[in-house]
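Sanity check. The docking grid for 6-diazenyl-5-OXO-L-norleucine depends on where the pocket ends up, so I'm generating a full predicted complex first rather than guessing from homology. Inputs follow.
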Amino acid sequence: MELREFLDQTIEKNKPLIAQGHVATYIPELAKVNPNQLGAAIVNPDGTIISSGDCNVKFAIESISKTVVLALALLDNGEEEVFKHMHKEPSGDAFNSIIKLETEPDHLPRNPYINPGAIMTTSLIKGANKEEKFNRILTFMQKIAEDDTLDLATETYLSEKATGDINRALTYYMKGQGVFPADVNDTLDVYFKQCSINVTCISLAKIAGFFARGGVLSTGERVIPKRYAQIVTGLIATCGMYDQSGAFLDNIGVPGKSGVGGGILCPLSSKKIGIAVFGPAIDKEGNSTAGMGILKDLSIKMDYDMF
Ligand code: DON
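Predicted complex below; grid placement will be based on this.
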């Protein structure tokens, strides 16, 4: 059976899992999204794309942006500087938990993919002001997605900003402990905007492909050192699905980074393949229920293996 036909079938098969999740409601703009959408896309090593379902629907990238911003922060600052500001360990807590910021002796975030670590990463992006910093993130994301139509969803951004009090609490806590190096409100503004960039399943699969190829575009152009792609993907494997990261890696066998918009980005470096799914109904950890089902079927069918 053709892979495209298999994707069509597995999307249909996993539709019942939509009922096991809900669209994110803590950001009102996300609560308006149709939960019944489902899409999948695979980018082969040569850049060719196989896709099915709602793979051209635009949705908010949300936490998946944390991988892209980490890559840019590494380019801007180097590995040593970035990891003076955060650890590389799973947190075992929810993405917006404050607990470990208090209990860690140095008060630094456990990793760049939970919210405090992601906001810390955003604070390290270079630029004369918050507008320039966001524009640098957007331009970088367009480049590695090989898609210059990616843009800011202003309504989502305003909704994130209006309801972002837990993120404010996390950031002020770090500032109060003397470990946050930048302006709180300016950094959060950039963070809310990066989460509100609209992507499609296809553009996400292309970003996954970029990381899976070790930081090289489908044209062969190297954009980031291989080491930086390894950091981004290694941390996706250990921390990408929050307190479900271990079970996800065990069940599905590919690294995944989720977002509350319903996307999951999977760079499979061992095969130089980029995979993405989109299903806005998410579980309590913030991960797409049907999206995970599709990934599991795909992984079994294709015998995907990280090692
Ligand atoms: O910071 C937030 O709450 C959101 N903008 C992003 C959270 C997110 O996507 C968590 N992921 N599953």
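Relevant for the grid: The mean pLDDT is 96.
Also worth noting: The pocket of 6-diazenyl-5-OXO-L-norleucine is lined by residues 62-63, 95-96, 115, 160, 167, 195, 258-260, 286 (CB under 6 Å).
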